[in-house]
Amino acid sequence: MKKIIIGVLTSLFIITLILSMYFMIIEVIPLFMVCFILCLLFFIFSVTYISYSKNELENFESNVNNILRLYNSILVETKNYPDLVNKNIIKLERLEDLIDAQLEIRKPIYYVKQLQTCSFILIDNDEALVYIMKRDKDDISALDIIIKDINILKRQEDRRKNVSDDLLSDIDRTTVIKLDGDKKYKVSPVRKGSKKTKKDAK
Questions:
Q1: Is the pTM of this model over 0.90?
Q2: Beta-carbon count within 10 A of 189 CB
């Protein structure tokens, strides 16, 4: 989002600069003055916004470094995220909650530091407590994407499990009717074509 804003401000600055030069050449002074003033305003806005973004990034870096120094004894840096596929992932809103949980279970907190985010992960058996520190709320970390993919896989697995359970339930309701000559006839709610029989496969 911030890159888009900087790009728009820069484009407006260039456009108004070109227009002001054009009106100056053809000697349309009023329009030249308007475009020149707008050009100056867009230039000031661009420089101010870039400076603000830079200060914001520096503040984020400073906050992360302070946290790493303060909790150095319980933090473990890792380049790769722990395997979270079979974990119950709980996203926390505050780092303090993660620290409190660590004090109870006495296990290390893994962290992955990126340019605009820093992810903290505490694993206890089948649970994973996660806190993602961001420079800006719109920033997306690699862990956000991983958690999203895992949730998609879990929903797909749940759907497959529900289909299998329904199929087994239908099979359980299969009725066997005995005919003359020891012949048997099955009446099943399972739809035809859901599974190929050996005879169909030939």
A1: no
A2: 13
13 burial type by CB count under 10 A (0-12 exposed, 13-18 middle, 19+ buried): buried
Lateral strand order in the sheet of 117-124: 75-77, 109-113, 117-124, 127-134, 88-91
Q: How many CB atoms lie within 10 A of CB 34?
A: 15
| Residue-wise pLDDT tens digits, 151-198 | 898 888 878 877 655 555 655 555 555 555 555 555 555 554 444 444
Backbone angles phi, psi at 132, to 5 degrees: -115, 115
Strand 88-91 to strand 127-134: parallel, antiparallel, or no bridges (unpaired)? parallel
- State the Cα–Cα distance between residues 70 and 167, nearest whole angstrom: 55
Instruction: Cite the DSSP H helix spans in the chain.
Output: 2-25, 29-70, 95-105, 142-172, 198-201
Domain parsing of the chain, residue ranges: 2-69, 71-158
